[in-house]
Amino acid sequence: MIGSKGGGVSNKLMTQIPHLIHIRDFCHCLNLVIEDSLKGFPAYIIQFIRKVGNYLNSGQRSQHFKEFQISKGKKCLEVLQYKDERWTSLLECTERLLRLWDDLESFFAETPDRTFHCEFSDPEYKVYVSLLNILVYRLTNSIRSFEKSEMLFDEASRKLRQTFTIYARMLLKAEKQNMEFHEVYQLVFHKLDEAENKNLIADANEFQITFNNFQPSFEASVKKVHEYYDKKRSPNAIDREIYGNARNFISQILVSMKKEDRFPFENKVLNSMEAIYLLKPFDQIAWQSLAKAFDNIITPELELKFSIDLQNFNCKYKSIQERYLSSGMSLVKIWEYLSKDNQFPTLSLLAKALLVIPYSTAPVGSVFSEFRVFKTPYRNRLSIQNLQASILVEQAGGEMKTEMIERYFTMWEPEPQEKEEGINNQPQKEKDDDTNISVKNDNLPELGSLAEVNNLEAEIREEFHVWIAPQLNNLFSQWIGMKNNNQRSFLNNSEEQKNRIYDIYPNSDLEYVRLEGSLKSKPNKPLVLANPKPGIMKPKTSLSPQNTTIDISGKKGEDDSLRFD
Questions:
Q1: What are the helix (H) ranges across 215-327?
Q2: In a domain, 425, yes or no
Q3: How far apart are CA 354 and CA 387, in angstroms?
Q4: Is residue 404 domain-resident?
């Protein structure tokens, strides 16, 4: 999509649309930084991590290692496979290897072929795996932060600059450790030993001291390598090799992060956006450059109004900034507040448009992953509405609440329509071919006012939760338990079962269930309530102990129906 020499799609779009900005995905770019840095790391360590993961992820070997952990009274953990396409895979694999290192060493010592026994017995392998874990930790932690949609663009940009600064300080002399981003970004890191950097970049010995101060436990691990090789290799040669690889790895991280157009460190428009975040002193030039860059928002007709708003905003900037910093309100709410009462309409318009600039597409990709959890091959006919509802419930978490159950009674009802003049809108009986619920009681008088109907429905809900719902669930479970040959029919059941649960009405091919109970009788005439969703039971009536039945039918096809009465 990007191409080279201005031939990519994004380059052509930016040529035709001046206010278009191209921003690379921060997560993907940081993963590319890790891949570039691994090219200078000992290749046999990367191959070791891959091979161990592949070897122990076969079914039989994985089961043997699990049984070994159980026999030792350890928690069963699997060795993870390293996948290049997964952004956090390398850190997760190294963390798991280090956690299981002693168990794996014992396990491979007992295997017949003693595969990987030499590698796990050699402390140098463990030192390099530990070193790799240390070096990629901050990069991977930044990726995990960018995968979430909890930050605005300025927060993500600051975290990216902070990551670069911390890696750069690891290469600097001790007296230069306080250099800020704008200072270290100007340094050249692919030529560490050149004369121009001697007064800033630490040499090999100084880097070793700085790195050990940064990670004290690492020095103890290196000493174990000294003891293991004792007279075969000198300690100085081991230190030069290990710390030299670490130094080159960090250098390659910085070089890769400074690649052209990889990160927007030098993008003037994005740097001018700091004015809308209300953290720095008022910058009129930055606001003017933003208005010029986004002329689709601040059109020529709004330029005069924008200049007046900018002057008024300058007068009140300090009080607005103090209020924002002390209130704890989000920046979005602050600009929403400033747009009210026509205070700074053009500035708010520009600021709110720029606040939505993304820094990663990972949150969007995670939504598609959530879809696959619910819409599986076995649920491929799940409707869009139900899929959305499943996602929202999963994101909200928690158990089903009473409000959700109460909402069930009204969620399918049509919205009330306003009465038209000159037309007598009488309540009509709802009809539905798929599902209907009717109450039949010849002894019940007519309904009174609308208030009485509402009171009746409130009592019905209470009775439904207390008595009717458990009874219906029990009867339905018995009906399901008696079905024969996976058919929703009970015609093949014994007469004793039929008589025990059902009353078969004469001259009818429908089956009924009679519910009896001691419920209060309500003055009511036959009432029919419709449900627009087929197959969903919606009891919304009260039952009396005499001569009262519930009629629930739901079509499942042309000839297949279920009716309870």
A1: 216-229, 235-257, 268-272, 284-293, 303-327
A2: no
A3: 31
A4: no
14 found inside a domain: no
Read off the pLDDT of residues 476-502 as tens digits, 9 standing for 90 and up: 555 555 443 344 343 444 444 444 444
Residue 314 within a domain: yes
Are 185 and 300 within one domain? no
User: Do 291 and 179 share a structural domain?
Assistant: no
- Residue 539 identity: P
CA-CA distance, 537 to 434, in Å (whole number)? 11
In whole angstroms, give the CA distance from residue 92 to residue 34: 14
Give the pLDDT confidence score for residue 509 in this predicted structure.
Answer: 36
Centroid of chain to Cα 466: 39
Whether residue 253 is found in the same domain as residue 195: yes
Neighbours of 319 (CB within 10 A): 9
Report the domain count for the chain. Answer: 4
**In which residue are the tokens 């009396």 written?**
544
HEC assignment per residue over 383-402:
CHHHHHHHHHHHHHCCCCCH
Which stretches within 397-488 are classed as H helix?
Answer: 402-408, 450-463, 469-481
Note whether 146 and 288 are same-domain residues: no
Which domain, by its residues, includes 333? 279-354
Q: Which residues pair with 440 in a beta bridge?
A: 549
Asked if residues 265 and 24 have their Cβ atoms less than 8 Å apart, the reply is: no
pTM of the complete model = 0.66
Do 350 and 384 sit in the same domain of this protein? no
Please tell me whether residues 310 and 196 are part of one structural domain: no
Here the tokens at position 466 are 């207390």
Are residues 184 and 303 part of one domain? no
Query: What is the SS3 assignment for 514?
Result: coil
Task: Indicate if 261 and 284 belong to the same structural domain.
Answer: no
238-253: burial string, b at 16+ Cβ within 10 Å, e else: bbeebbebbbebbbbb
pLDDT digits (tens, 9 = 90+) for 308-360: 999 999 999 999 999 888 888 888 888 988 888 778 999 999 999 999 888 88
Reading the block at residue 256, the tokens are 């890769």
Contact status, residue 202 vs residue 171, Cβ threshold 8 Å = yes
Question: What would the pLDDT profile of 21-43 be if each residue is shown by its tens digit?
Answer: 888 899 999 999 999 999 989 99
Q: Which of 321, 352, 322 is nearest to 336 (CA)?
A: 352
- Partnered with residue 549 across adjacent β-strands are 440
Please tell me the distance from the alpha carbon of residue 425 to that of residue 230, in angstroms, as a whole number. 99
**Are 513 and 501 a contacting pair, CB within 8 Å?**
yes
